[in-house]
Amino acid sequence: MYKIFVLMFVMLLTTTVNSSTKGNENMDNPFFKKYSTPLQTPPFNEIKFEHYQPAFEEGMKLHKLEVDKIIINTAEPTFENTIEALEKSGDLLTKVANVFFNLTSSNTNDVMQKLSSEMAPKLAKHEDEISLDLRLFQRIKKIFEKRDKLNLTVEQYTVLEKYYKNFVRSGAELNDTQKSELMKINEELSVLTLKVGQNILKETNNFELVIDNEKDLAGLPDNLIKSASEAAKKKGKEGKWVFTLHAPSIFPFLTYAENRELRKQILTAYANRGNNDNEFDNKKALSRIAALRYKKATLLGYKTHADYVLEISMAKTPEKVFEFLDKLWTPALKIAKEEVSELQAIINKEGKDFKLEAWDWRYYAEKLKKEKYNLDDEMLRPYFKLENVIQGVFDVAQKLYGLKFEKRNDIQTYHNEVTVFEVKEVDGKHVGILYTDYFPRESKRGGAWMNAFRKQQKVGGENVTPIICNVGNFSKPTEGQPALISFEEVNTLFHEFGHALHGLLSNGVYPTVSGTSVPRDFVELPSQVMENWASDPEVLKMYAKHYLTGEVMPDELIEKIQSSSKYGQGFASTEYLAASYLDMYWHTLTTDQEKETLKFENEIAEKINLIPEILFRYRSTYFNHIFSGGYSSGYYSYIWAEVLDADAFEAFKETNIFDQKTAKLFRENILAKGGSEDPMVLYKKFRGAEPSVEPLLKKRGLE
Predict the structure, then answer these.
(1) What are the Cα distances from residue 124, in Å, to 4, 10, 170, 387?
(2) Which residues are catalytic?
(3) 311: helix, coil or strand?
(4) Distance of CA 464 to the CA centre of its chain
(5) Residue 642 parent element (H or E)
(6) 24 - beta bridge partners?
(7) Under DSSP, is residue 548 helix (H, G, I), strand (E, B) or coil?
(8) Which of 506, 652, 676, 703 could form a disulfide with 515 if both were Cys (CB 3.0 to 4.6 A apart)?
(9) What pLDDT digit, counting tens, does each position of 505-535 carry?
């Protein structure tokens, strides 16, 4: 099946890469056959680069024929012969897109990137040709207008409503001149958004901080030094140490390196990605994206791009988002300023005469944390062997939902660092497949995410089980030592696993609303609520075991984690909220004039009174989420969903964190339902009432 609007969504959620090929016979192309692999998982060993373009081209051709068949059907339009037929269309296109765009995020190369750039406008045009076809829209409209008389299920009603709204929002009611203009905008946007993501990956990979003087390693933990030494060897720089802009390298460096000048050097490089006036510069591209998005929104009858995006979110309007951010910004900034004073006091106490800067924050915050709580993140790392953490999150899922995770060595992977698990119910019934891919590499974009190689759905009454992937960039093993990840990385792993559960436990009929196909500000609820289990004392005792001795994390350390849980929330909340404001201001522009990127960004920093010691979590030129990743006007959604998750976890704490009744309610009303009903309706079915913001303020210490 291939549903309209999904392809561009997949493209937005991934970083892309591509190239063109000719001449491969369809008979040899694995995409043209039914997969003969276990559980019909992608046959990665058989898929070659030259298979992608022919499969894309044939997929678009077949999809168009299937849609044309729906359009010329002379029978009265019905849900079955129009909406269900659209849901079932485009199998081949979905098949190749799911593999290709997942791999362009997690295992890319130059030829993949080239093909991605070539295919993007073609795919955008293909989608537009369908979504702007007035004949197809008229069929959908006829069904929509009599929807209350059709005896539809709740899910069918939602799917129909979504199709109708999506066609309207895609320009189906525009005149021919307007449709032509919209198609040009969409084609240009498809290329530009790919370019921004590719540039960020290039800029991240291009920088190296090479240290050849051992004295400059002062303060750094042994595991980081080992990792940097191994990175240097791989690059032919024996006897030196290489630090990069990948998260497991840069952030520990900023936290522990005593050499202030080197901290400044690496943070400056990180903050200037896409802003180096070279071939990978993003300033003009992202300004053009913002202008084009405004033009598209006004063409469709909206005031701004944010108005367009938020119409189908829980927040509904930009005004509601700004109101929400303002409510959190004031207390967050107040606490951040207090933290500045505390950190400056440590600098002064050491007899230093410099003012705290952004590259000093993590270093002195870690010192203050140790002083206040006698806790250092490196004290925790030995207890977080990656394999133990993975088993821990599996055990949580088992205790909550009765799931079992069995490693499968007979299923092909796209990289040797990928592990495959079959997920089963407690009675042995197959649920789905989970790929885990947790280490950074140059072929993978930064960050962490969940995606699907196949979404759950029902075809002809038979359940099609999901194939899900969790991808991250965590600390790698070093010679003689397993992968020991930071507590922040532990939380990220639990977070992405929450998304995976949303995809795995989906129990819908139609892929348009299955799994994570929900509003952007609701999709983070299942992921963020899982983070609560990561730090719970009962759960820590399940998986936090010293990698050498097997000793369970002592109560003293667990107590320190609990008592320091609100530490640094001024910084964390402020840098995140600042990025959320930046996103909203870029997308509430009311002009198609292309802004001068840095000037605009500085104006926003001044407008919200962002203190100079804290940078936007993502500056515009490397804000992949909003300019290449599907989160435009939606970056606020993480903290919006945090309101939901704080309230939701309270439901578990009211009994116990593994309460079966509460877990059943959460599974049945949140995880299984996908986007089949209004998210607030689903939440109230789970919780019994709308969420309150108070648990969030308490959790973050922003009361």
Answers:
(1) 11, 12, 12, 41
(2) 496
(3) coil
(4) 24
(5) helix 637-653
(6) none
(7) coil
(8) 506
(9) 999 999 999 999 999 999 999 999 999 999 9
